[in-house]
Design a protein that fits this description.
The protein is built from 2 helices and 18 strands. By secondary structure, the chain is mainly beta. It has 2 domains: about 100 residues, Sandwich (Immunoglobulin-like); about 170 residues, STM4215-like (2-Layer Sandwich). A 6-stranded mixed sheet has the order 10-11-14-17-16-15. Strands 2-9-8-4-5 form a 5-stranded mixed sheet, with no helix packed on it. The chain has a 4-stranded antiparallel sheet with strand order 1-3-7-6, with no helix packed on it. The longest helix is centred in the C-terminal third of the chain and has 17 residues. The radius of gyration is 27 Å and the shape is elongated.
Amino acid sequence: MPTPIIHAITPSVGPTSGGDLARLVGLHFAPQVTVRFGEREAEVLAIWSEELDGQTQWVIDVRTPAHPAGLVTVSVENLDDAATPVPDELGPLADAYLFERSSLIEEASVTRLIRALLQELKVQVIENTNMTVALDYDATLDDASAVPSLAELPALILSGPTVRLNRFYANNVPHERVILGSSGPELLRYRPALTADLSFRLTGASTFTAELLNLMGSLSSFLNRNHWISLARDPDQPELGSVRWELDMEGELRTNLYGRDDLRVFTCGLVVRGFDLDEGLPMDWGKAVTEAPELQTLSHGSAP
């Protein structure tokens, strides 16, 4: 059999931790092969052949190994029936895959959303309240009686979120993405994103009734003024614009002026509606795109 030839690797970038799925397309692969990224061996998940324009094309799906950051050569080595390397049947493709180390400072969208909520509460509530208020966040706070553990009172605490599926805002249509395949552009179809409501709880606390009512009034004004919360789609690419979600009060303001340790508290719910927790998982590999102009008309959420 001739020397293996690798035509394309998709995707061509992945994390240094490995574990990503990658697809190799080429010619002259054997039914059993060893695939290496640099000097590290990848796990071969599947290998098969298909006819394309009268020529047999081979496809290999692998799981990438862990590897230090940098560009590496990807190679395919044919094996015989005894799983022994076949002499002179090793096909490398130089600088074919880039291992990238994930940025430790990159924030998830939920984290950025919580940060934005805290910033807006500070500017619109705390700084416009005629008293000193501590603003804190506790994702595990289940009981308003835990507030006295804070170092400073009065206080306003944002806790949560809990997640509920939202079918009203959900996009039930798979979306498509153009990728570069062995024979040109192809469409990769993605499942609809998982859309949810993020439910938070706001707790105000003070040892003085007047302070608590002052804080409650300022928070009520905030909830009446703000019906949306916006975030940049990508903080590193401002040209991509922003996206916004509906912000709404959930339930009623509830007060307890006779708490333990002479603590006055109030609580209310706050919900962010229609938040996509992911962008949809890949469904399958689509057919080749034959008309180049079509690539410019594809959009997020377009019908398959």
